[in-house]
From TrEMBL:
<dbReference type="Pfam" id="PF13542">
    <property type="entry name" value="HTH_Tnp_ISL3"/>
</dbReference>
<dbReference type="InterPro" id="IPR002560">
    <property type="entry name" value="Transposase_DDE"/>
</dbReference>
<protein>
    <submittedName>
        <fullName>ISL3 family transposase</fullName>
    </submittedName>
</protein>
<dbReference type="InterPro" id="IPR029261">
    <property type="entry name" value="Transposase_Znf"/>
</dbReference>
<feature type="domain" description="Transposase IS204/IS1001/IS1096/IS1165 zinc-finger">
    <location>
        <begin position="49"/>
        <end position="91"/>
    </location>
</feature>
<dbReference type="InterPro" id="IPR047951">
    <property type="entry name" value="Transpos_ISL3"/>
</dbReference>
<dbReference type="Pfam" id="PF14690">
    <property type="entry name" value="Zn_ribbon_ISL3"/>
</dbReference>
<dbReference type="InterPro" id="IPR032877">
    <property type="entry name" value="Transposase_HTH"/>
</dbReference>
<feature type="domain" description="Transposase IS204/IS1001/IS1096/IS1165 DDE">
    <location>
        <begin position="162"/>
        <end position="290"/>
    </location>
</feature>
<dbReference type="Pfam" id="PF01610">
    <property type="entry name" value="DDE_Tnp_ISL3"/>
</dbReference>
<feature type="domain" description="Transposase IS204/IS1001/IS1096/IS1165 helix-turn-helix">
    <location>
        <begin position="98"/>
        <end position="147"/>
    </location>
</feature>
Length: 291
């Protein structure tokens, strides 16, 4: 075996390729730090029909396609292949599904998985995009594929505690409502706007089994979410987070202080003047002067 064939076999092992797929050639550009790995399906070998899994003879090949793969050292790595078409007795002529990438994707499965790890570990898409050397459109494509994969894995399992919240993602108060499984830390569904109708739609998409199993729904005090939950999940408890409860309580305490201060000032008593933050602060944190 010559050295080129040996190197090709090494790449086949690194890529996890099995028959009939094999590495036919490599193109390395040192200056551009760019590596292209060319893959072919061995001539004469049969490939499975992706609809019935029957081994079928190769018919011809489509135009060459490329997929971004994980970097090799510091080199951007591209996989290139003219995808074979097969002739199935039952389903006719079909394009083969390649094992290293999902249908219609411009990235390999391994690269998409790595990109999602980077995106979830970074503080912003901007920093992730720079590290991965991707455009905004490419990042959105990878995110879309990840969501589709996640949706296909959804099942009818029991859910006990859900949360519904809104996120302001653009200027001028553009909101998105998010339904989450609190116990498993996963997003169940997302919809634009934060109206009662949108919240009801999110909750209605749950299966009957899941709706019956939900014991509590966590949310802020937005009336639309409260009304939607009371309508769709009447037996579930509505739980408000401590932050919003404390905020509303603080506003109520301050409103009472203002009214009392006005009444006391009329009678010449200014004891409540300048005490706003005293009433809103934990007594354990008061200064000696405040006490």
């Amino acid at each position: 075996m010559d050295i080129q064939s040996a190197v090709n076999q090494d790449y086949e092992q690194l890529l996890g390729l099995t028959k009939p797929w094999r590495v036919s050639d490599r193109e390395l550009d040192i200056e551009a730090k760019h590596l292209v790995i060319k893959i072919i399906a061995k001539k004469g070998e049969k490939l499975p029909c992706h609809q019935c899994d029957t081994p079928c003879a190769q018919e011809d090949h489509r135009e060459e396609r490329s997929w971004r793969h994980l970097d090799t050292m510091q080199f951007t790595t591209i996989i290139s292949c003219r995808i074979p078409r097969i002739r199935c007795a039952k389903h006719g002529i079909l394009t083969t599904i390649v094992p290293w990438a999902n249908k219609y994707s411009r990235f390999t499965k391994l690269f998409e998985a790595f990109a999602i790890d980077v995106l979830t570990s970074s503080k912003s898409i901007t920093s992730s995009r720079a590290l991965l050397r991707l455009s905004w459109d490419q990042v959105h494509e990878i995110q879309k594929h990840a969501v589709i994969r996640g949706m296909t894995r959804k099942n009818d399992d029991t859910i006990r505690h859900v949360g519904i919240d809104e996120k302001n993602f653009l200027k001028r108060y553009s909101y998105t409502s998010i339904l989450t499984d609190i116990d498993k830390g996963r997003v169940l569904d997302v919809a634009q706007e934060r109206t009662q109708e949108v919240a009801m739609t999110l909750l209605t998409k749950l299966s009957d089994k899941q709706k019956e199993s939900i014991e509590a729904v966590a949310m802020d005090m937005w009336p639309a979410f409260m009304n939607a939950t009371a309508t769709i999940l009447p037996s579930a408890d509505i739980v408000h987070d401590k932050y919003h409860v404390a905020a509303y309580l603080g506003k109520a305490v301050d409103a009472v202080r203002k009214k009392e201060s006005v009444l006391m000032m009329k009678s010449g008593n200014s004891d409540l003047k300048g005490t706003k933050y005293l009433w809103l602060t934990n007594p354990d944190n008061w200064s000696k002067e405040a006490k």
